[in-house]
Specification:
Blueprint lengths: L2 E10 L5 E11 L3 E6 L5 H8 L7 E6 L2 E2 L5 H4 L3 E4 L12 H11 L4 H15 L14 H15 L3 E5 L7 H16 L3 E5 L3 H7 L2 E6 L2 E6 L1 H5 L2 H7 L5 H8 L9 H11 L8
Parallel strand pairs: 3-8, 3-9, 6-7, 7-8
Antiparallel strand pairs: 1-2, 1-4, 4-5, 9-10
This protein binds adenosine-5'-triphosphate (ATP).
The site of adenosine-5'-triphosphate has 12 residues, from helix 1.
Subcellular location: Cell membrane
GO molecular function, one term: ATPase-coupled transmembrane transporter activity
Pfam families: ABC_tran
Amino acid sequence: MKSIVLKDATFIYPNDHIANEELNLKINRGERVAIVGQNGAGKTTAVKLINGLNKPTHGDVFIDGKNTKDKTVAQISAYVGYVFQNPDDQVFNNSVEDEIEYTLRYLKLPSEEIERRVKRAVELTGIEDFLDMKPFDVPFAIRKFVTIAVILALETPYLILDEPTAGQDLKGINKLSKLLDVLEEEEKTVITISHDMEFVADNFTRVVAMANKKIIADDIPRNIFWNESVVAASKIKKPEIGELAKEVGIEEKIIYRDELVNKISCSSKPHTNIK
Ligand SMILES: Nc1ncnc2c1ncn2[C@@H]1O[C@H](COP(=O)(O)OP(=O)(O)OP(=O)(O)O)[C@@H](O)[C@H]1O
């Protein structure tokens, strides 16, 4: 019951454009799922079915057993937090602190609870030094963490991160990885849309590949990235490490740096009988 379920979910925009066709998907609490696929495949439309911004034209979407058709976006937002691809579409307050507190105050939470949630969200995103700044004055990469902090403070069981690594350097990506570990410990579900296949392979245990309005594969990263027909149809790129392993003639389906390092160091170990 504690899951997100899409059942034959089709979404047609008002201009009759079919963006999602008969999606079937079940995502349990505590899972880390990446949705990948070519531009226009229907990924954002699909996550908007999950956060209730889109209601399926045909079929159903259930959040913890509740049909989104019977719920308002506000009601669903207690379950599903959505971090926009572009932080500028999300921020509107005069300071970072106000931005994080806004919904918590709207929900009329007790002040100690607001303080606790803000402190936690700020610590997890490392944005302590920016709390008094106007969100639009904060550097883009940090602004993305501000919008993540806003959603973390809502403490929803499901979080959707749309292109979280866009504009991030290695430090930002490492911060995201640590955050995902903390959320997993708390049994939160994280769904990401990403074009960053290294990030997907390194941080997600399940990959849903979309192409042309449909889900074409749903599997562990290794099986997705080494399935040439899925890679071609969804126009994704195997992580560079996989390509490199293939180029140097390693036959195993490698997708992680450690695997390649191990493989190379094993094959280049000096012979012990050489004097
Ligand atoms: N409001 C809208 N009205 C009509 N068509 C739309 C609307 N929003 C998106 N579309 C179309 O629906 C299709 C799916 O769009 P969607 O944004 O879900 O794809 P995506 O996989 O998220 O793409 P990207 O990786 O570029 O973000 C595209 O053809 C897009 O042009």
